Amino acid sequence: MGGKGADWSRRAILAGLASALAACSPGSLQWGSRSFSLPWGGDNGGGGGLSPIASAPKERFGRGRVNVALLLPLSGNAALSQLGQSLANASKLAIGFIEANPNIGENITISLRDTGDSAAGATSAANAAVVEGVKLILGPLTAEQVTAAGNVARAAGIPLIGFANNGSVAGPGVYVLNVLPETEMKRAVRYLRDQGRRGPAGIFPATPYGEALATAFRQQAIAAGFNPSAVYTFSSISEAQQIIDQAKPLIERGMIDALFIPDRASAATFAGLLAQAGVTNETVQLVGSADWAHDAGLLRNPALAGATFPAVDEAGLNAIRADYAARFGGNPPQMATIAYTATILANVNTLSLATPPYEANLLTNPAGFAGRDGLFRLYADGRSDYALVIKQIGTGGIVTTADGARI
Known about the structure:
Layout: H1 10-14, H2 18-23, E1 59-61, E2 66-72, H3 78-100, E3 108-114, H4 119-132, E4 136-138, H5 143-156, E5 160-162, E6 174-176, H6 181-194, E7 200-205, H7 208-223, E8 230-234, H8 240-252, E9 258-260, H9 264-276, E10 285-287, H10 296-299, E11 308-311, H11 315-328, H12 336-347, H13 349-352, H14 360-363, E12 369-371, E13 374-378, E14 384-386, E15 388-393, E16 399-406
Parallel strand pairs: 2-3, 2-4, 4-5, 5-6, 7-8, 7-9, 9-10
Antiparallel strand pairs: 1-3, 11-15, 12-13, 13-14, 15-16
Helix pairs in contact: 3-12, 4-5, 6-7, 8-9
């Protein structure tokens, strides 16, 4: 349950690491240029032999009168179900916080339901939650499952807050609470602008993950007032030298003074080739992604000293770490704070006790909400904004906060 070997990043699970989850143990997973689709749950929602999801909740916790469903994978693929149980634990921790605080009303009861590892399982769990009369659905995890459960919830007029980091599955009434590609790109691009950089460019893998980041980079760079000078894509790392050769003249002319290399698997290669070409961090600011945050090998790479990247403020995770370990054993995964935040959000008086509860205009309050990781907002199109810090890699892999948490 998030213990030894379970170094889960948000993108690792939610971007859908099909090949990695199929072939690796949790301790050996490598993130980076991966697909947004998991191998289980195609168009027909096949579950790879998954048993039908039981109609009864696996568990209930909380003592409030408003029924809220929490849909998570608790069976099926071992890696995914391990994360699902950890997020269920984080939700229980949030309920425990509510119950222990006399200044917070106990408004909700959580009904925990198993989605298994398929779209069909998510549909089944969502249907059972609707029959039970829930007012809000939290989860599921993957993009395919959020889509499946979201279709059920939307038809029933029940809002759903899923945990995928793929904004394409969001829509009116179906929200995604996570760090989306556009969120981290907006944070990083605006930081570059504030630092006086004028020519951002990017190198992205030709994968669904890379394409989503590339699209977000273009959109957010233009929104920040930049005219992106170059956007490169690659299908194989063997193309890296060619890309650097193409970028070098633009760097020399000052047209590129910041370069996004967000893909974990290739970042060190590109940084090394730039160093060999005589490009320093003073000339070109290297920028990574939130996916870099816990890759110790990457952060210790000398070629990346001085690089920056957006990340979730770890203060929130650190604040619940001891309580989680004491109650459940092991360390909470990075995503624990999202399940914790969603549970606290569901209990908010102005949302849960409204008539009717969880109306769209309430959930999309422009002021946003204070979550375990800081400020976040939900928008009418179902997407979200999440407060991020800017981290900078120093000599020897020492990482510091260059700019505090903000949206």
